[in-house]
Amino acid sequence: MAALAVAGTLALAACSSDKSAQGAANETTADGKVVIDTFTPADQNTNLDTNQVTKIMSDKFKIQFRWQNTTYDAGPAKEKRQIALASGDYPDLFFLIPWVDAFTQAEVLKLGQQGVAVPLEDLIKENAPNIQKALDSNKTYKEMSTAPDGHIYALPQWADCYHCTYPDKLWINSAWLKKLGLQMPKTTEDLRKVLTAFKTQDPNGNGKADEIPMTTDVQDSSLIAYLMNAFAYDPVGANNGVRSLVTLDGDKVVTPVTSAAWKEGLKYINSLYKEGLIDQAAFTQNAQALQAQGNNPKAVVLGSVPVLWPGIFVQLDSKDGRDKQYDAVPPLTGPEGKSYTGLNYPTSTGYTFMLTNKASKEAQVAAIKMLDWIYTDEGQMITNMGPENVGWTKPGPGDIALDDKVKPLYKPKQDAPKNINWGALGQYNNTLAYRNAQVVPADIYTGAGLERRLFQATKLYEGKEDKAQWFPQTSVWPDPSLSGELATLQTNLNSYVNQNQLAFIAGSKNIDAEWDAYVKGLDSTGMTRYLQIQQEAYDKYKSGSK
Q1: 3-state DSSP call for residue 146?
Q2: Does the structure show a pLDDT above 60 at 329?
Q3: pLDDT surpasses 80 at 242
Q4: DSSP three-state, residue 310
Q5: Could you give the 3-state DSSP secondary structure of residue 334?
């Protein structure tokens, strides 16, 4: 550690500084690389200082990254970002992951108005032809990238992730179903019967009542959404990650969370909770705790988990094969015959690449050129998987693409070493054509066959979304002058809805006795004003102007 500290001091001493045209100090290393302070998440297997893609980017674009890392835990990651911005000690570049801690529209507008976020459109025109091509050829991407004042203050990722488009999945232990002679549940009451059997009939066969019928974790949960969609349409992606606040009734912006159907959905979830069929930890535990449950060395204990994919709760290619036991449950049908699933399109709804006014002109150009390369197929393959023949290879004879009708382009290596790629950090032009050209084995129950497993599972959900109710949040920008107010409203309403929903589910609030007070409290928390702002923005969008 002492040696590293001395080396860091010497490296800084060797740096030179001047003033760019925009006034930010340009810091370079002795070998002529521009220093870019970069705020980004990294998982436990990634050391960005020694990462192979970091070295490739550093050499190719003459960048010396000075990383400010967070973990993948969304709460602490956002808190660290907010502290950095509030203190004024923020980086040159925010380089984020959508599902960890992306900026919302309101945050982007606010930071753009404050001059913290640097407009990118001229940088792109002058230095980034691949980004410009993506913007020009993809109407939705351009709409979600361009603020009402015409500036691009931050870029979202674009990932045509088919299985992510329908995220409200439930994975159930089909081996337990078979052992107990049960069918895959089709209705809400079918599910109750299955979960009760999981709880009471010892499906893991160890003679202990250690089975957990249903659980999840806070970070990855689609528990409320999956179950709610049998009663009322629960939207995905509304408000850039804040679920369930707005839907459409024709061209009228409404909220579903005050409807009688929503109330019935919460009552159903509460009934499962009261019967011990939903684990109490489902609403409090983190991803690591869920993994510990799924990988319990003493026994398989998880009956069902509502998350995007099985690897969230169980180790793929487990020695005992437990990961092969889980299959997707189609959307359930509720007592009124409703059967929806959420639609998440585009799948990356937050803003992840933001240059700030701390970045010198040289740093801005280097960063945008780096991102532009990521928009190429070569850049995608190397950034996401690592160097060729280390993280991936060219397809060989007999290899089949995920879409077997297209020519395969690349084959991920299953035995690739750790810390060789940037993974989800680089999914910026991850088009359907690119994703479907990946070589995927036919056996869906292997780790290597995961994409095909998810592809096939998602077919159960496709078409169950209600596009008529879906609010195109990423394309609908509010009035920039209202961005601060909107951000506050979103935060307050999201907190209010979440707290009350959990109270109704856990039973600390009686839903029949206290529902009217909850609805009234929504108005005092700002729902009426929030819907007004969204309606005005939607009307402008529909008229063809921002």
Answers
A1: coil
A2: yes
A3: no
A4: helix
A5: coil
Question: What does the pLDDT look like over 275-297, one tens digit per residue?
Answer: 999 999 999 999 999 999 999 99
How many C-beta atoms surround the C-beta of residue 357 within 10 A? 16
Nearest to 350 by CA among 160, 495, 144: 144
Amino acid at 276: G
Q: Do strands 34-41 and 63-70 pair parallel, antiparallel, or not at all (unpaired)?
A: parallel
Question: Has residue 119 got a pLDDT over 80?
Answer: yes
Cα distance between residue 15 and residue 30, in whole Å: 6
Given this model, what pLDDT does residue 243 score?
60
Can you list the positions of beta strands (E) in 191-249?
A: 247-249
Give dist(CA 63, CA 250) in Å, integer.
50
Contact by Cβ (8 Å): 94, 353? yes
> CA torsion sign, 158 to 227 to 77 to 163?
negative
Look at residue 161 and give its three-state secondary structure: coil
pLDDT at 8: 37
Judge contact between 224 and 231, C-beta under 8 A.
Answer: no
Q: Residues, the chain, total?
A: 546
- Contacts for 14 with CB less than 8 Å, ≥ 6 apart: 29, 30
What band does 6 get if pLDDT is binned at 50, 70 and 90?
Answer: very low
Terminal CA-CA length for the chain: 53
- With 80 as the cut, is the pLDDT of residue 13 above it? no
Verify cis geometry, omega within 30 degrees of 0, for the bond prior to 98. Answer: no
Report DSSP letters for 129-140, one per residue.
HHHHHHHHH-HH
**Distance between CA atoms of residues 184 and 207, nearest Å:** 24
What CA–CA distance (Å, rounded) separates 339 from 336? Answer: 9
CA dist 449 and 311 (Å) reads 12
Q: In the predicted model, what is the mean pLDDT of the chain?
A: 91
Residue 55 scores a pLDDT above 60: yes
**Sequence-distant (≥ 6) Cβ neighbours of residue 463 within 8 angstroms:** none
Residue 250, judged by CB atoms within 10 A of its CB (0-12, 13-18, 19+), counts as exposed
Find where tokens 């297209």 sit.
406
* Cα 28 to the center of its chain, rounded Å: 34
Q: Is the dihedral of CA 160, 163, 169, 170 positive or negative?
A: negative
